[in-house]
């Protein structure tokens, strides 16, 4: 079943283009038009969105929040399911609750859905598992089509969740008229290139992690930094690394460094920085320069031929240029590969990290 791959994690990282293609298929046509009528949801009266999820799915939710707020101008709350279920949450029948779960069986996420029932919220389940419990609890279902994910650490299911939320953001923007038709179609056509761009990232990064892995050989801990859409990607990169390599790793908004975490920085605390684009890239660069000045070994995730990245990074992991909507997916690829290669370098079983289960059906 593994084919040419040494483990399921590597296989599933490489299945991301296919997971994206299958998740977009039938929901996004060649002109860039989105069709989510399969959900049967009437989105016209939605005035607020709440995302409930755990772990990696929560990070996909944070990316969804950014896009829904920017395009559809709706307030979005992203809630940790285990907290939300006991929080006596606020909402009404116009609140759309988006419950994201690869397995569809996560107890805390199911309980969060139940909590949303008290205020009459409509629940959309974004899940990878047909017939799972959550598909029965929700009002509507948007299946991610990543195929079975065997590795405990989620990769291709995450990519598919991000794509599903991108579709939802475009659909909410269309229904609400917050983005012009032309721009919506153009964003839709960009989104259609997700499989191609993620495949390009995989090709570009093949066999390129060695120097970065070396920086982690004596690591006590590590920090993952990003701003804007790169922040949730940093959180996900840190989660991936800590769960399979057992190196304490934290994701931080790059601008928060000076409020505490920079005290951690020394030669044994590598910093992985997703530089991003535009104004945020400049801001991130200056935050990362501060860590480098304090001795951090920086792994910069940047576009090819980025001279500033070469200056600040001991190692640069290059990603292809991509339309804005696809960048979080593209940035995720080097972080997944890095986590995988650091853990295998330590002789660890990446598919079955200690203390973890694929599906968390206890509280
Ligand atoms: C991390 C990981 C977990 C899951 C979380 C939710 O790699 O896989 O954090 O994302 O346990 O699981 P689902 O999506 O099945 O509800």
UniProtKB/TrEMBL annotation:
Catalytic activity: D-fructose 6-phosphate + L-glutamine = D-glucosamine 6-phosphate + L-glutamate
Organism name: Rubrobacter tropicus
SIS domain mapped to chain residues: 39-178, 212-353
Enzyme class, broadest EC rank: transferase
General function of this protein: Catalyzes the first step in hexosamine metabolism, converting fructose-6P into glucosamine-6P using glutamine as a nitrogen source.
Gene Ontology biological-process annotations: carbohydrate metabolic process; fructose 6-phosphate metabolic process; protein N-linked glycosylation; UDP-N-acetylglucosamine metabolic process
Top-rank lineage group of the source organism: Bacteria
Record-level Gene Ontology MF annotations: carbohydrate derivative binding; glutamine-fructose-6-phosphate transaminase (isomerizing) activity
Protein EC: 2.6.1.16
Gene Ontology CC: cytosol
Keywords assigned by UniProt, alphabetized: Aminotransferase, Cytoplasm, Glutamine amidotransferase, Repeat, Transferase
Active site residues of this protein: 358
Subunit and interaction comment: Homodimer.
Protein name: Glutamine--fructose-6-phosphate aminotransferase [isomerizing]
């Amino acid at each position: 079943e593994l084919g040419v791959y040494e483990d399921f994690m590597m296989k599933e990282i490489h299945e991301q283009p296919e997971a994206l293609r299958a998740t977009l298929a039938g929901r996004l046509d060649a002109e860039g038009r989105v069709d989510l009528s399969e959900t049967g949801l009437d989105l016209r009266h939605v005035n607020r969105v709440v995302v409930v999820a755990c772990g990696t799915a929560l990070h996909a939710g944070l990316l969804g929040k950014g896009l829904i707020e920017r395009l559809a101008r709706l307030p979005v709350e992203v809630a940790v399911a285990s907290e939300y279920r006991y929080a006596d949450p606020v909402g009404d029948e116009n609140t759309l609750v988006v419950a994201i779960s690869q397995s569809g069986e996560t107890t805390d996420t199911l309980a969060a859905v139940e909590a949303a029932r008290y205020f009459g919220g409509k629940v959309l389940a974004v899940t990878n598992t047909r017939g799972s419990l959550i598909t029965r609890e929700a009002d509507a279902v948007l299946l991610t089509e990543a195929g079975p994910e065997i590795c405990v650490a989620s990769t291709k299911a995450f990519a598919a969740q991000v794509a599903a939320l991108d579709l939802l953001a475009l659909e909410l923007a269309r229904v609400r008229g917050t983005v012009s038709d032309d721009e919506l179609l153009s964003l839709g056509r960009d989104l259609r290139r997700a499989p191609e761009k993620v495949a390009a990232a995989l090709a570009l990064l093949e066999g390129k992690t060695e120097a970065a892995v070396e920086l982690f050989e004596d690591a006590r801990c590590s920090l993952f930094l990003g701003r804007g859409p790169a922040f949730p990607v940093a959180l996900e990169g840190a989660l991936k690394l800590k769960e399979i390599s057992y190196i304490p790793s934290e994701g931080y908004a790059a601008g928060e460094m000076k409020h505490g975490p920079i005290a951690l920085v020394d030669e044994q605390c590598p910093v992985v920085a997703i530089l991003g684009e535009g104004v945020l890239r400049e801001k991130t660069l200056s935050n990362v320069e501060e860590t480098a000045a304090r001795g951090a070994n920086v792994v910069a995730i940047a576009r090819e031929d980025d001279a500033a990245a070469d200056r600040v990074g001991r190692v640069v992991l290059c990603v292809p240029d991509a339309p804005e909507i696809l960048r979080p997916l593209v940035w995720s690829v080097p972080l997944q590969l890095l986590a995988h290669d650091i853990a295998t370098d330590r002789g660890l079983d990446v598919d079955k990290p200690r203390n973890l289960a694929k599906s968390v059906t206890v509280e």
